[in-house]
Amino acid sequence: MKITFYGHASLGIEVSGKHIIVDPYISANPKASHIDINTLKADYILVTHAHGDHILDVEAIAKRTNAVIVSNAEIAGYYSQKGFQSHPVNHGGSWNFDFGKLKYVNAIHSSSFPDGSYGGNPGGFVIEGEHKNVYIAGDTALTMDMKLISMRTKLDLAILPIGDNFTMDVEDAIIASDFVDCDKILGYHYDTFGYIEIDHEAAIRKFFDKGKDLMLLEIGSSIDL
Ligand code: NI
Ligand code: MN
Q1: What's the whole-number mean pLDDT along residues 43-67?
Q2: Would you tell me which of 106, 129, 132, 154 could form a disulfide with 225, CB atoms 3.0–4.6 Å apart?
Q3: Which spans in 16-158 are helix H?
Q4: C-alpha 189 – ligand 1 centre gap (Å)
């Protein structure tokens, strides 16, 4: 499994020969100006919630690639009404895709589209694929529900928001990593806007002091699991 950071909360995941894009917000992110969305491969686009900083490039990528948009029932319905392929899920539900098993899990946040359309309730994803398991938290507060994830899945990587203001901060993300029982963390949802700028070295040190490895990737770079 290969995971690429495209800035903000945008990810690329390659697993079992399939290409997955998560929450694409790339074309309007000045920090990601070296990423061309027209070159991104996508069999699936996963959407955690309907906020503009998570859906901006969904339609452009889906139109070009014919990718299946996977999200909660309301977001999937919103895109299927526009003629896109979608697969609806909802909290607690799993589906065996050709890339692995995907589960939609709770997030504490909000979820309306920029045009005011109802975006259902926000979530995160647990992906079990190719003997590696990953949790993508989405935009969320720290929540006790995270403890449920480790009761079903032994994670190899937890992808957690750490930028504060709209989501968890670093300290809460450290507790979240305890809740999901995973000491390998990829931080996301930081630095994009003034509200969520963080001190990278301080964040890495705080995780290190708890025996945990926080990775902060350059935009466009990848890790192999
Ligand atoms: Ni959001
Ligand atoms: Mn966000």
Answers
A1: 98
A2: 132
A3: 52-55, 58-65, 73-81, 146-152
A4: 9
- Write out pLDDT tens, residues 77-113: 999 999 999 999 999 999 999 999 999 999 999 999 9
Q: Express as a percent the part of the chain with pLDDT over 90.
A: 99
Specify whether the CB–CB gap between 90 and 77 falls below 8 A. Answer: no
| Separation of CA 53 and ligand 2 centre (Å) | 5
Q: Which residue has the tokens 């061309």?
A: 36
Enumerate domains of the chain plus CATH numbers: 2-217 (3.60.15.10)
Fill in the amino acid letter for 91.
H
pTM of the complete model: 0.98
Does residue 130 register a pLDDT over 90? no
Q: How far is the CA of 56 from the centre of ligand 1 (A)?
A: 12
Residue 208 alpha carbon to ligand 2 centre in Å: 26
138 CA distance to ligand 1 middle (Å)? 8
